[in-house]
Design the sequence.
């Protein structure tokens, strides 16, 4: 069984620790070992100046400072143990390592600050997107609400579309018989079937109360066929709720939406067709005249 990491450290932090601290320290050991093997003594010590810069790529300012101090002390101690007799050269190397260490810490701080800025900007953008989605979504059904439907229509440019208004005929009776919680289940169930019955390219939303709106990017004939198909599915298959399996009647008004026509006009015609469906006995589809 694989050993789990402590809760206070995740895999990403472990990788950054390895790259920002362990690897630079390993390079210090490798460089000093190479110096011993390949000498002249301290010939490679100056290369250590690059180690803090390596740490700055992955580490925090604190870990970079730690690596910088470790690098300087390693160079200092190694210079004392294996001196080439040139004190000035050793002093210059130590000064260079110190300068590069300071630069590395500053670079690490700038990088961390930029990363935090990017992360905060990404978080703000994600929160703004979430707020936008929530503002355009109906809580009960997960469909677009009226605001979301109108916003999505601004992006559509089909030359001819079909608009349908669906209305639950018996919602009041369902609420009176089973209660509003069951009524909400019916509302959600109808919304789910509408969303699943139409194409993902079509706009499906809850217009308000027991009314739903569907806009299809298809001409009237094809759009009406799709509406009739979904209508048959809705009215022929009862909806399961926590109280009972309930049959739902739907009245539907359909209207064609010509290119350039204002939404108010097509909504009025679809509403009139919906009213006609209800006045004729409900549970039927009426197509508005062109």
Sequence:
């Amino acid at each position: 069984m694989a050993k789990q990491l402590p809760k206070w450290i995740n895999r990403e932090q472990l990788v950054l620790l390895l790259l920002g601290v362990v690897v630079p320290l390993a390079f210090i050991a490798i460089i000093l070992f190479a110096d011993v093997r390949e000498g002249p003594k301290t010939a490679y010590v100056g290369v250590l100046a690059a180690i803090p810069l390596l740490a700055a790529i992955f580490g925090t300012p604190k870990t970079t400072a730690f690596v910088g101090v470790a690098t300087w002390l390693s160079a200092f101690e190694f210079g004392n143990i294996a001196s080439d007799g040139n004190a000035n050269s050793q002093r210059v190397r130590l000064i260079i390592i110190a300068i590069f260490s300071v630069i590395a810490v500053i670079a690490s701080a700038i990088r961390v600050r930029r990363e935090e800025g990017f992360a905060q900007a990404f978080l703000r953008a994600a929160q703004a997107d979430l707020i936008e989605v929530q503002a355009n979504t109906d809580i009960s059904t997960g469909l677009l609400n009226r605001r979301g439907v109108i916003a999505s229509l601004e992006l559509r440019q089909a030359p001819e579309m079909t608009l349908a208004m669906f209305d639950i005929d018996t919602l009041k009776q369902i609420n009176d018989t089973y209660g509003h919680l069951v009524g909400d289940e019916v509302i959600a169930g109808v919304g789910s079937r509408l969303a699943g019955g139409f194409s993902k390219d079509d706009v499906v939303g809850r217009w308000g109360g027991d009314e739903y709106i569907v806009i299809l990017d298809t001409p009237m004939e094809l759009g009406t066929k799709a509406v009739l198909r979904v209508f048959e599915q809705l009215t022929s298959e009862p909806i399961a709720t926590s109280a009972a399996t309930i049959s739902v009647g739907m009245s539907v008004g359909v209207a064609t939406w010509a290119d350039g026509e204002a939404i108010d006009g097509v909504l009025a015609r679809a509403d009139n067709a919906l009213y006609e469906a209800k006045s004729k006995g409900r549970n039927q589809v009426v197509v508005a005249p062109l």
About this structure: The chain has two domains: 11-133, 146-287. The mean pLDDT is 87. The chain is about 60% helix and 15% strand. The domain at 146-287 is CATH 3.30.70.270 (Alpha-Beta Plaits).
